[in-house]
Design a protein that fits this description.
heterodimer, A: alpha/beta, Rossmann fold, 17% strand, B: mainly alpha, ABC transporter involved in vitamin B12 uptake, BtuC, two-stranded antiparallel ribbon, two-stranded antiparallel sheet, 4 strands, disordered N terminus
Chain lengths: 329, 322
């Protein structure tokens, strides 16, 4: 009995020592924390289910760990009614900076208001196609440059644009695609090309973009056999549908996309009708915003420019093999 | 319960005749309109083949939806199930699994999802809306997990041929859609389970009192729908040569629309496979015809919705008349 009691006391003593030790550790940690005062960043994206959005979540999480930031990462799954209140709630708990990834300014009005009320700056990546006072900086890609490069490739391949029949496929809800599709249409009209169907052909949903683009091209070529010289598409997934429509119809029309997805690059390497795509330099853009955030963390310096459009790179048969696909970043 | 049209009574008013045959008349009118607008193109072999190719996968998924709607339910998860099945088949083949094994497993996944839906609805008495909405949510998540959020491509050529190959210059999915539709039509019309489904859809209590195992009938209906929609999804992946988590998502809405359109074709106003095929054809003809005329896709969507409203209104008027 006595032995048993001694054992219990011994275990209790060990537990007490351990508890004191842990408390000590905890106290030390909180003291350290208090003195260091971690830089708190709220990061959010609605596009986490896309390959690039998923990459962004991982990359920002890794950057935060490297920089010692206290990160709150909110993933919206394209559901703004879920994402916006979650971000506003995080703002209510306090933060030093907010980082918007690929979420259009038009969809985050309530977040912008909450951030302004709390005097927290929003740093953004591909979140608007023009200057916006919602962000202290927004770095995206140069849409006009994307259009110039893809149309340049088409022009070189089909011997100029004048008098050529070219279909433009866009998707209005995505501001970047909407802008570049409009720019492509304007540039083609200016160059004397005919816009197939008279206007930008609009895909309704990105989820079914490939089948919608396939049907658009197949039906157009049925009605106008041999009636296309090229198809300019605002993003790769729909471009791959257009490519299938073109090849199944036995048309020689060339197709361009934007995104540099693995499948698009494989299509270019196959040497068929898929002429080119665009590689948008997201990793280097992320580095630029990372540097802006570090400067702000250091002494409150805000970025010099509120909008930067970075040039993108054309991917064609000459460099497809050496380009890292956007879904393999 | 019979789905056979009763012969028209002599002296029937023109209004009633139009009401009875409204959907078929609408289809004929659509074909006549598009033919008049583009006589050189619309009814050409190439374009008819094009329309059949474009609606073949929808026809398969709408067949699945018909089975569930015959029982008096509906399944919101069919589009998601088809996407998941395509993704599973693609992922397995890219992982080195032989083609037919991958297809069988993917079809099995669809069957299991249908079985789960049927169990939730028939045995746990959840409403079809809630159960299939919940299943759809989980299935979409599973499809994202299987594809890792990307598009799976570089599928074996033999697999792609299932969706892109041709026999007598007609795409294989057209034949597959016809075979599946005929099997489902035969099952609904000539088998005991088909008659049980009709009885259950007519009045569950009466069916039960007549000796029909209503719960088993509903379970089997959802299970078959899951399997058939999975076949549709596998074919869609073969058709596109790729698979993503959401690529069949619009088929759910259009399959319900096709069944509703088809319900107006027969006098009883119930879901029926022949009518569904008329509905599928209307959707396909309209999309193709409007594309050929260069009509904006947003306008197309408005017109599609209006035609469905008109058809359902027609169906409701007929039911009131009965």
């Amino acid at each position: 009995m006595r032995k048993k009691f001694t054992g219990v006391v011994a275990i209790a003593a060990i537990a007490a020592i351990a508890a004191i030790g842990l408390t000590g550790c905890s106290t030390t940690a909180s003291t350290d924390t208090a003195s260091a005062k971690p830089f708190k960043v709220i990061a959010f994206t609605s596009g986490n289910q896309t390959p690039i959005g998923a990459w962004w979540v991982k990359a920002v999480t890794a950057e935060a760990a490297t920089n010692g930031w206290e990160l709150t990462m909110i993933q919206g799954d394209f559901d703004f009614t879920k994402m916006n209140p979650a971000v506003e709630s995080a703002i209510g708990q306090g933060a030093d900076a907010i980082f918007d990834g690929y979420t259009d300014v038009a969809s985050i009005g309530s977040i912008v208001t909450a951030a302004k009320d709390a005097k927290i700056p929003i740093f953004a990546m591909d979140s608007a196609t023009a200057v916006s006072d919602a962000f202290v900086t927004n770095i995206t890609t140069n849409q006009q440059g994307i259009v110039d490069q893809t149309l340049g490739a088409i022009s070189a391949k089909i011997g100029g644009l004048k008098g050529k029949n070219i279909m433009v496929i866009g998707h209005d809800p995505h501001p970047g695609i909407r802008m570049r599709a409009g720019l492509a249409k304007d540039a083609l009209i200016k160059a004397g090309a005919n816009i197939a169907g008279g206007d930008v052909q609009k895909v309704k949903s990105p989820a079914t973009g490939r089948t919608e683009a396939l049907a658009l091209v197949a039906d157009y070529l049925t009605a106008h056999p041999g009636g296309l010289d090229a198809v300019w598409v605002g993003w790769d997934d729909a471009a791959l549908g257009a490519l299938k429509g073109v090849t199944e119809a036995g048309s020689a029309a060339v197709v361009t996309g934007v995104d540099a997805s693995s499948e698009a690059i494989a299509g270019i390497e196959a040497g068929g009708n898929f002429l080119a795509t665009i590689d948008q330099p997201w990793p280097s853009i992320l580095k630029m915003i990372d540097a802006d955030l570090l400067a702000y963390q250091k002494d409150g310096t805000l970025p010099a420019k509120s909008f930067i459009a970075v040039d993108a790179n054309l991917v064609d048969i000459t460099n497809a093999a050496t380009t890292t696909p956007s879904d393999k970043l | 319960m019979s789905t056979t049209n009763a012969p028209a009574k002599p002296g029937r008013s023109l209004g009633r005749t139009l009401l009875q045959g409204g959907t078929v008349i609408a289809l004929i009118a659509l074909i006549a309109f598009f033919f008049a607008m583009r006589p050189d193109v619309f009814l050409s072999f190439t374009n008819v083949k094009n329309i059949l190719f474009q609606v073949s996968i929808l026809a398969i998924i709408a067949s699945a939806q018909t089975v569930v709607m015959v029982v008096g339910d509906f399944d919101l998860s069919l589009g998601a199930t088809s996407s998941l099945a395509g993704a599973v088949a693609a992922a397995l083949m890219l992982g080195g699994v032989p083609m037919w094994t991958a297809i069988s497993v993917a079809a099995g996944v669809g069957l299991l999802i249908g079985l789960a839906n049927g169990f939730l609805i028939a045995y746990l008495r959840l409403s079809a809306f809630v159960a299939t909405l919940a299943t759809m949510t989980s299935v979409v998540g599973l499809a994202y997990l299987v594809t890792a959020g990307t598009t799976l491509f570089s599928l074996p050529e033999g697999f792609n041929n299932l969706g892109q190959g041709k026999f007598l210059n007609v795409p294989l999915p057209v034949y597959i859609a016809i075979v599946i539709s005929l099997i489902i039509w035969g099952t609904l019309r000539f088998t005991t389970i088909g008659r049980s489904w009709h009885a259950t859809g007519g009045n569950q209590e009466v069916a039960r009192l007549s000796g029909v195992n209503v719960r088993r009938a509903r379970l089997l209906a959802f299970t078959l729908a899951g399997l058939v929609s999975a076949i549709g999804g596998i074919l869609l992946a073969a058709r596109l040569g790729s698979a993503s988590a959401v690529q069949g998502s619009d088929n759910m809405m259009f399959s319900v629309a096709a069944v509703f359109l088809g319900m107006t074709v027969i006098r009883s106003g119930m879901a029926n496979l022949g009518g569904t095929m008329v509905g599928v054809t209307i959707i396909g003809v309209m999309s193709n015809g409007l594309n050929i005329l260069g009509v904006n896709s947003y306008v197309q969507q408005v017109v599609t919705g209006l035609i469905i409203i008109a058809a359902v209104t027609l169906s409701s008027l007929k039911n009131r008349e009965r």
